[in-house]
Design a protein that fits this description.
There is one protein chain. The chain is mainly α and 468 residues long. It contains 19 helices and no strands.
């Protein structure tokens, strides 16, 4: 195997270890989406009220917030690779426990455990990739996290559909006499184990090794994986890393606080990037799209087809983002994305204002039904090609070495909290008015444009050691 890929100077080993780290994103997407096919069956099996069912779905998001919060400090103490192994274990336990749940209480516990793993993976993948990737290709490699997430969502939807079809329904008995909905969770064991086995094989981050004084191991990783060929290059890189890492001072939340007792400005930028990424309502499209299209007059079969098409669209535009992020830059992509999302969400709000009827008889007269459908998919295109992957890229690289893991944890925790708030408030907002819901998301998309324009700095091509 050659030291570099055919088309650029990115070492092949860096690409491979980045793919392994990004598998945490696959589990992130899979775990988030797999419950969609099981929701109705769970409600019937355990006779759940709407409130309890809603919390059963959203509890994983709260678990993810906690997992993200503690992932950075844990990774700084135990290493990025060990933290990945813990995340893989949490995924595995959650999948098995959810598949054999006795009732709603233990199902919520198992789902929350899986959320812890999701939150950890959401921090570990961008942090690790940013710390091993060359500056010129760091954006493309870090975007693998988002690609893995959308693939995980897609595979979860496909596996749910396959299991339900093979068994007759989600509530029917499947293989070995186990209900189909339980198999939907149990399938998550396979990618979780694969992630754990592969994570065991990859080297530790050179920046973590330098911070721990393990300079010989760091030099070996920089030479064999990162691709620095000469001893002088390796020594220069280690010296550069050492100059930006305080070995004596442990990272902690206190390191994020400035002289006046406030969070550092760069930490606020990371938090607000995370919040805006969720407050534009992207997960409403993925969590509620089927019921959304049903509510405005599309048939159940058409609603499912639309959801699958949207998922495939998200995968394709993520490929576009990977191709552009290191050429165009992070900030321009975010600005274009904000503009596109504002227009698409505004059109959706106008389209839904034309709905007629009430309750089950509500519908969108033509051409507004088609306009809403096109606008929704243009929104996914605008998000998937920009804010979806680029925010993860920035969170992995925008912080200095002294605070990266902890700051990334705080920003990711804020993202999961924002995700939870949007997910739980959409049903109430939609009952009032879909115009209100999508008008609000359009407003946040517009605000995100001005926020990026004023406060976000370009990081394309910069070494991590130059981030201050």
């Amino acid at each position: 195997m050659s030291a570099t890929t055919e088309h650029d100077s990115t070492p092949t080993k860096v690409v491979m270890v980045s793919i392994v780290a990004a598998l945490g994103g696959f589990l992130f997407g899979f775990d988030s989406a797999v419950i969609n096919g099981a929701v109705d069956a769970i409600a019937e099996q355990f006779s759940l009220s709407g409130v309890v069912l809603g919390f059963t779905v959203s509890c994983a998001l709260l678990g993810a917030m906690v997992g993200a919060w503690f992932a950075g400090p844990f990774a700084d103490k135990q290493g990025r690779v060990r933290a990945m192994l813990v995340a893989a274990l949490l995924f595995t336990v959650s999948a098995a426990g959810s598949g054999f749940a006795f009732g709603p209480v233990d199902l919520i516990i198992w789902r929350s455990i899986g959320g812890l793993g999701v939150g950890m993976a959401s921090v570990l993948a961008p942090a690790y990739i940013a710390e091993v990737a060359p500056a010129h290709s760091r954006g493309r490699l870090a975007s693998l996290q988002q690609m893995a997430i959308v693939l995980g969502i897609f595979v979860a939807l496909l596996s749910d559909a396959f299991i339900a079809t093979a068994s007759g329904s989600a509530t029917a008995e499947g293989w070995l006499g186990i209900e189909a909905w339980r198999w939907m969770f149990l399938t998550g064991i396979v990618p979780a184990v694969i992630y754990g086995v592969l994570a065991w094989q990859i080297p530790e981050s050179p920046r973590y090794l330098v911070a721990r004084g393990q300079l010989a191991r760091a030099a070996k990783v920089l030479h064999e994986v990162v691709g620095l060929t000469s001893r002088d290059e390796v020594d220069e890189k280690i010296a550069s890393i050492k100059s930006t890492i305080s070995v004596e001072r442990k990272q902690g939340l206190a390191s994020l606080v400035g002289g006046k007792g406030w969070l550092l400005p760069i930490v606020w930028v990371g938090i607000l990037l995370s919040v805006f990424q969720q407050f534009v309502g992207i997960n409403v499209i993925f969590y509620y799209s089927t019921s959304l299209w049903l509510s405005v007059g599309f048939t159940e079969a058409d609603s499912f087809t639309i959801t699958v098409i949207t998922s495939v669209t998200n995968i394709l535009v993520t490929i576009v983002a990977i191709a552009l992020v290191d050429k165009v830059g992070r900030k321009p992509l975010l600005l274009w994305g904000s503009a596109g999302m504002t227009i698409a969400l505004g059109v959706m709000a106008v389209a839904f204002s034309q709905s007629t009827g009430t309750g089950e008889d509500v519908s969108l007269p033509q051409p507004w039904g088609v306009i809403a459908l096109v606008a929704a998919n243009l929104f996914v295109v605008a998000f998937g090609a920009t804010w979806g992957p680029v925010v993860w890229v920035l969170l992995g690289e925008m912080f200095s070495n002294k605070i990266r893991a902890v700051a990334l944890s705080v920003a990711a925790a804020a993202q999961w909290l924002a995700n939870f708030l949007v997910t739980t408030t959409f049903p109430s907002l939609s009952e009032v008015s879909l115009v209100l819901a999508y008008g609000l998301y359009a407003l946040f998309a517009l605000l995100s444009f001005f926020f990026v324009f004023r406060f976000v700095r370009e990081t394309k091509g910069r070494e991590l050691e130059s981030m201050q």
